[in-house]
Amino acid sequence: MTDSIKYVLDETHIPKYWYNLMADLPSPPPPVLHPGTLQPIGPDDLAPLFPMALIMQEVTTEREVQIPEPVRQVYRQWRPSPLYRARRLEKALDTPARIYYKYEGVSPAGSHKPNTAVPQAFYNMEAGIKKISTETGAGQWGSSLAFAGALFGIDVQVFMVRVSFNQKPYRRALMETYGARCIASPSMETDVGRMILAATPDSNGSLGIAISEAVEVAAKNDDTKYALGSVLNHVLLHQTVIGQEAIKQLEMANDYPDVVVGCTGGGSNFSGIAFPFIGAQLRGGKKVKVIAIEPAACPSLTRGKYAYDFGDTGHLTPLVKMHTLGSTFIPPGFHAGGLRYHGMAPLLSHVKELGLIEAKAYHQITCFEAGVFFARTEGIVPAPEANHAIKGTIDEALKCKEEGVSRAILFNLCGHGHFDMQAYTDYFAGKLVDQQYDEQELAMALSGLPSVKAA
Ligand SMILES: Cc1ncc(COP(=O)(O)O)c(C=O)c1O
After folding, report:
1. Whose C-alpha in 199, 205, 263, 393 is 20 to 30 A from the C-alpha of 381?
2. 415 lines ligand 1 (CB under 6 A)
3. Do the Cβ atoms of 381 and 424 come closer than 8 Å?
């Protein structure tokens, strides 16, 4: 063991391949279905929305998918991201645990999202696409795609969930700085948006609604494709640079995690750090306890049903089997906007069904408390989403203390919170509440799940 604080790799260590967990799983995830025929969809069904290179990545079972050199060139701006040993946090907790965190806040947009925004924009550019529509929750994804669009000459239009649009005006300004257009969702610009506003004029919006708006724009305009910042296989694939780098950095530290922790909205940053470790385990390596942390007000993995459902509220997407709260479920407007999604990535849901990960849910106040404790020891102010991972990590570290054992805990600090200071201000003013979702609304949303015979 060394006494280093940070483990830094040079640019030559940026992975050359994305790691595809599909190659090592004992069984494949259930197929994606066409909502009309209930038959598995093929690449052509997705062609109006995505360039073919990304569609092929969606279905590939090859273990390694080569990262195009122009994408690696852009990654060089912030990758490999640092791995830190949280020595001051360990001391403050008085724990024998060895806590490490991979810090993705060093990217231009401030989170892990550019890891997939850059390749998505690149493949669209290669296919001759000039416009992309997308949604954003916290604004991290919208900023990331706006940044990537600027690099590859693509116009980006972002539907931002209204509650976050109001909470974070500077995220919108950042998107505009990169040259994108940002619209509060639900909006009057789409059929879905107009329908929802007619029924609920003061709607907070949700990721499910914003996805519908962005998909509608792409489906109706031949010159526009759609991009998703999480959930899909190719997004999870692109994020595996995080875990691959972490494995090398932990080698520098002569260590290997016993526990891996991440927060889950649609599942991409968590999968990015966890899948390379789960894959190593499936190939005969050390068993790792992998814990997904989600918000108690939108608990898809811990309270959702594993069932076929739409990926969006307006029912424009294919049916995917995932842990879902129902596509019409609108979570309360808590501050971790990136975690307000009704479903979970189908691949990650399958991994959960295989028993390869655990999931836990926490309310927001205890997560902010953990985030502030982290900021006061390690100095970095985390994104509200990342506070969930920190809370999960601190609980694991305190368990080590109780049991008197030293375990290595690795977590993904997936973004900084510099655009989220209003949330921290509200927390200090005692204005945050632990919102409960409406049980009746959940029951209704779940009862509306599409009926698909056991697949
Ligand atoms: C900082 C941050 N963390 C986490 C998430 C959740 O997404 P995912 O589960 O795909 O990582 C988001 C989504 O917007 C985010 O901005």
Report:
1. 205
2. yes
3. yes
